[in-house]
Amino acid sequence: KSANPQWREQFDFHYFSDRKDMLDIEVWRKDNKKHEELLGTCHVDITALPAKQTNCLELPLEKHPGSLLMLIAVAPCTGVSISDLCVCPLGDPNERQQISQRYCIKNSFRDIRDIGFLQVKVLKAVDLMAADFSGKSDPFCVLELGNDMLQTHTVYKNLNPEWNKVFTFPIKDIHDVLEVTVFDEDGDKPPDFLGKVAIPLLSV
């Protein structure tokens, strides 16, 4: 019941500098559980923003009255990566030794925020549900840890997809849960849910 809402929410997105991405924002109005109305959209060209500083933006909503006030910071993020299985970041024995030294007991209190990182190899899925009329699915896999999210490419027309991707996340909270969800890509429509598994970090 407000025409001037304040959300004060923060979201982290992984943005890879070799991509030309736009940040698309939609504002919705909800009357009840069934009725929703789009109040406006706006777009931010990430590549045009100065790096390593907080940018205060007042964005007018397209074709609708009102504007959206946002703080957007583009900052370097260490430890996050997506790679193919053949060029795994921890494949080098010397690198593994450096990491073992970095996280040994005597260095535990050198940097309290540096808890560690998680590397996940997403190999394949087997016997997925058919989501299309053709009896196949177009599956992709989404990994979420805290408010970090990375995803694989889509393997089209396949119930036994092989992704063979390696994902590396910095760990911010040792009590976080890794959520791995498989979706079926459905063109312009929201993806269909094909399955999910949750893995507490403390169980790894």
TrEMBL record:
Record's GO cellular component terms: synaptic vesicle membrane
Key word Transit peptide present: no
Membrane topology summary: Multi-pass membrane protein
GO molecular function, one term: calcium ion binding
Main localization category: membrane
Location relative to the cell: Membrane
Keywords per UniProt: Calcium, Membrane, Metal-binding, Repeat, Transmembrane, Transmembrane helix
PROSITE patterns membership: C2
Domain C2 as annotated: residue spans: 1-59, 93-204
Alphabetized Pfam families for the sequence: C2 (PF00168)
Biological processes per GO annotation: regulation of neurotransmitter secretion
Family matches, as InterPro entries: C2_dom (IPR000008), C2_domain_sf (IPR035892)
Assigned protein family: Belongs to the MCTP family.
Protein name: MCTP2 protein
